[in-house]
Design a protein that fits this description.
The structure is a homodimer of 150-residue chains.
Chain A lengths: L11 H20 L6 H12 L3 E2 H8 L3 H13 L3 E5 L7 E5 L1 H10 L2 H13 L2 H5 L1 H16 L2
Antiparallel strand pairs in A: 1-3, 2-3
Helix pairs in contact in A: 3-4
Chain A binds a DNA duplex (30 and 30 nucleotides) through helix 2 and helix 4.
Chain lengths: 150, 150
DNA sequence: TAATTTTGCATCGTGAACGATATAAATCGA
DNA sequence: TCGATTTATATCGTTCACGATGCAAAATTA
């Protein structure tokens, strides 16, 4: 019993880590044709909801550091999905704007969420069971986020 | 409503991805003193359960590719936690063995799981609620794993 | 047994993640 | 108003994660 808690099978974090990796993998067939990685797709979701945001707002919504988001945006600028312009009131800010290509991609991406749901449901049944995790995950995230600011 | 499903707040995968990242972050204060990263800690868990395993078995248990695990093990060999030796029956295999330092670290790591639990519970209450996700996560992982082999 | 295929691991290239650090602009305080 | 601090990004170095590829040993098959 001494080391029981060190067993892999008792680790929640390992499951989160694995579930996240594999789920991201399941997006591959849908994102590859669009030339997007999963984190880039998340940035697109943020920008489709609201265009013209500073780097910091995007990072904040994704709970990522700006030093993760900056190079990500640089790559996305290179592939022509976004533009990055100097902020007007605050010239330290870089405002991220969708290009025509970026805006149009929304239509192509429209069905990705339902495709993913369908695939997951097909493979292990209950969508409801998965949806039931959402409030718990949100609480977990909320708690860990506060821990960060200490 | 046309693009409702593309909203970030409706994404389960984003929550898994974030929860996994933040939880891994919560391990930092405990793993840093041991000189371990979280994936390296996972390898240690596997080896503490059973020493002397080929690379492939470790990768399989962690659901990682060998091309992820190999460099990870190379770094761990450099820090003196493990040794990698040629397999005897099958000389293609590399057998991973804990060093004295690696074995002794188990005692220092013994309390990490309960520390993490305590921290998470302190921050957002219910441990039970989190434990309830385990069967669902396992089903999700199982389903996605099978999808991989197609 | 010789040729073919499979398997186990390694290497390489690309894209995250993130700590540490840098830099310029904005804000604050004396 | 001027120096100090904070803020918004960017850069750098290290470690994953993984697709593609390479290579030698084993297993399979002709």
């Amino acid at each position: 019993m001494k080391y029981e808690q060190l067993k892999l099978e008792n680790q929640v974090c390992f499951r989160l880590y694995t579930a996240a990796r594999l789920t991201m993998g399941a997006y591959h067939p849908y994102l590859d044709p669009l030339g997007l990685t999963y984190p880039q797709y998340l940035v697109m979701l943020v920008l489709w909801e609201q265009d013209k945001q500073p780097v910091n707002d995007i990072a904040h919504k994704l709970l990522l550091e700006t030093n993760t988001v900056t190079p990500l945006l640089q790559r996305m600028e290179k592939t022509g999905l976004i533009k990055r312009t100097q902020g007007k009131e605050d010239s330290r800010q870089r405002i991220v704007t969708l290009t025509k290509k970026g805006i149009e991609m929304r239509e192509q991406a429209k069905h990705i969420p339902e495709c993913l749901s369908a695939e997951i449901i097909k493979n292990e049944g209950s969508a409801e069971e998965i949806m039931q995790m959402i409030p718990t995950l949100d609480k977990l995230i909320q708690g860990l986020k506060q821990q960060l600011n200490k």
